[in-house]
Amino acid sequence: MDCVVTGGNVKVLAKAINSLSRIGDELYVEPQEEGLALRSVNSSRSAYACFLFAPLFFSRCRLCSVQAVFRSLATLEKTVEKCHIELDEQKNRLTFTLHCKHGLMKTHNLSFQDSESLQAVFDKDSYANVFRCNPRLLVDTVVHFPPSLEEVTVSVSDERMWFRNHVEEDADQSKAMLTELCLASEEFDHFGVKAHNGVTFCLKELRGLLVFAESTGLPISMYFDEPGSPVVLSLTDSVLEGNFVLATLSDDPNHPCTPPPPPPPDDFMNDDIDCYLIAMDTSIAPGPSGAGPPTPPLSDSLCSKPSAAANHRTRPHSEEEEDETADSGRPPNKKFCSLFFGSVLPASSQMTTQPVTSQQVLASDSEEDVQ
Amino acid sequence: MPLSTQSQADDEQYVLVASLDNARNLSNLLKAITFKDHAIFSATPNGLKVTVEESKCLQANAFIQAEIFQEFTIREDSVGFQVNLTVLLDCLSIFGGSTVPGVSTALRMCYRGYGYPLTLFLEEGGVVTVCKINTQEPEEPVDFEFCSTNVTNKVILQSESLKEAFSELDMTSEVLQITMSPSQPYFRLSTFGNSGNAHYDYPKDSDMMELFRCDKTQTNRYKMSLLKPSTKALALSCKVSVRTDSRGFLSLQYLVRNDDGQICFVEYFCCPDEEVEEE
């Protein structure tokens, strides 16, 4: 592999790698027909990101070293004129050569390991709800939540979208602070709602995408379906496409779910309260349609964040296969769905490749080319 | 200035009196060499030299010429003592170290001689503080025997470009390798970290390169942990000269401009980690 990145694109590449580093520790580099894909996944497989750029092939190298190359973004923008990336297969080495101002040349030779293709299974076009907006809108929304906030719940009605911080049911309600923002459909470039759903996902990974989007100014498209299905955020332009796929909390289909208290009524909300309550009710309906018996979402792959996992870490793996086990006296358990990956990855005996909804099933055999 | 109203008779008991209208002109420089607690002070009629050493492998010197001081009186050919540098720096910034322009701490540093403490009179806004710091027997600084005649390779670079390289250096590398050569790659800094190696090449015709005098290709490695403190001096400086001698010893000389635009020098000597002839 041999490719060169010049001018402003070096910064874009750097920011993309920066965003990927907020997801996982390792960078998967894969050249495809459509271009060079850079991907990352977190350890619990509940967040995945992929940037598709320009030329050809396949390896994996340690992200921390790639981050070292692009660590100082401010100077990168000002001094790097050209970036040349090449792969030496014999020596198992990936080389980044940065041509900088004043004739300075920085060469980074990074060792890498071969690995299998990393591909999340998702079909955003089949999702019920699709939105598109300027990244500024999401950045301005997210800024209202404390940086330490783990999860955010996004719910929609025909005309509005709410962002609310997610608080565990067993958290002390009297001490919890609830923050909620409401965005009107007019603020979006596109607001297509088919199902009044609410999904909860990790905010941290979203922030990684927002940093990238804000710097490039590309509109963000957001796709989501019902709880348990991943939420997909993507950006595209003529030379790149980025997709961030984040797992969402799934409501346990076998337990009655207490809907979160409706927001305090005010002039804006009154006419939507009924819809809102209905939306909450529908979110607990048994999940996948047309896929036979509801497969318990992959609850053993928990979100690694402490707050979500707090309830779940105590549960051993085998128990988690049985959603139906009633834990009397305990509030219904919510679990993060992990994402389904199309290839066989090591030590993933608990993973299945069964679809959650009527999504396309992608091959689990690593040798098959997935796309 | 209040401090100068000190009785002139007192001055006769001091072997060294040095005054600065702005103590930062001293403290900033000392911060660039503070990697150990203790520093050896050596004063001659030419000025003040402060030395800090690490395991006999690294030595840093800060030079403040007599002309930089508003008053510099020395009654002996050479005056030497050792003090705790951290304590000294704390005293110099005793008024909080504010960087409001026009407000500065005035300093009068006095030393009576062997066995006496170092006395600092510090004044800011009419408030005077007196600090007395115990002195110790000065150790003999290591003589690295680095002389100009033995210098094989020398480059002078504008600090700006080196600052960037040093801030990005892979700290998982135990050594920093410096290659200087009359041919490609001319001047190269290399690291060998956990995930791979990295090279920073400065061509001899770069506009950052003010002087390039390399006769022989030399590659030497230095422990990263030893060189790390030098980044403080680099941050303050506008130019740096990098020299190696026939033994591979490294001399880094930093040209620092103080608050008043006057020039001071900081120098680091480092011995090589291992002999590497040519690559």
From TrEMBL, chain A:
GO terms for cellular component: checkpoint clamp complex
Lineage: superkingdom: Eukaryota
Main location: nucleus
Biological process annotations from GO: cellular response to ionizing radiation; DNA repair; DNA replication checkpoint signaling; mitotic intra-S DNA damage checkpoint signaling
Listed Pro residues bias regions: 256-266
Region (Disordered): 250-269, 284-334, 349-371
Keyword annotations from UniProtKB, A to Z: DNA damage, Exonuclease, Hydrolase, Nuclease, Nucleus, Phosphoprotein
Single Gene Ontology MF annotation: double-stranded DNA 3'-5' DNA exonuclease activity
UniProt biased composition (Polar residues): 349-363
Annotated localization: Nucleus
Catalytic activity: Exonucleolytic cleavage in the 3'- to 5'-direction to yield nucleoside 5'-phosphates
EC assignment: 3.1.11.2
Chain's role: Component of the 9-1-1 cell-cycle checkpoint response complex that plays a major role in DNA repair. The 9-1-1 complex is recruited to DNA lesion upon damage by the RAD17-replication factor C (RFC) clamp loader complex. Acts then as a sliding clamp platform on DNA for several proteins involved in long-patch base excision repair (LP-BER).
PANTHER family: CELL CYCLE CHECKPOINT CONTROL PROTEIN RAD9A, DNA REPAIR PROTEIN RAD9
Similarity comment: family membership: Belongs to the rad9 family.
Protein name: Cell cycle checkpoint control protein RAD9A
Lineage: Eukaryota, Metazoa, Chordata, Craniata, Vertebrata
From TrEMBL, chain B:
Record GO cellular component, one term: checkpoint clamp complex
UniProt xrefs under Pfam families: Rad1
SUPFAM superfamilies the record matches: DNA clamp
Key word Transferase present: no
Coiled coil, from the record: none
UniProt cross-references to InterPro entries, sorted A to Z: Cell_cycle_checkpoint_Rad1 (IPR003011), DNA_clamp_sf (IPR046938), Rad1_Rec1_Rad17 (IPR003021)
GO biological process, one term: DNA repair
CDD domains noted in UniProt: PCNA
Record bears the keyword DNA repair: yes
Subcellular localization, as worded in the UniProt entry: Nucleus
Protein keywords: DNA damage, DNA repair, Nucleus
Predominant location category: nucleus
Family (UniProt): Belongs to the rad1 family.
Subunit architecture: Component of the toroidal 9-1-1 (RAD9-RAD1-HUS1) complex, composed of RAD9A, RAD1 and HUS1. The 9-1-1 complex associates with LIG1, POLB, FEN1, RAD17, HDAC1, RPA1 and RPA2. The 9-1-1 complex associates with the RAD17-RFC complex. RAD1 interacts with POLB, FEN1, HUS1, HUS1B, RAD9A and RAD9B. Interacts with DNAJC7. Interacts with RHNO1; interaction is direct.
UniProt function note: Component of the 9-1-1 cell-cycle checkpoint response complex that plays a major role in DNA repair. The 9-1-1 complex is recruited to DNA lesion upon damage by the RAD17-replication factor C (RFC) clamp loader complex. Acts then as a sliding clamp platform on DNA for several proteins involved in long-patch base excision repair (LP-BER).
Protein name per Swiss-Prot or TrEMBL: Cell cycle checkpoint protein RAD1
Protein species of origin: Gasterosteus aculeatus aculeatus (three-spined stickleback)
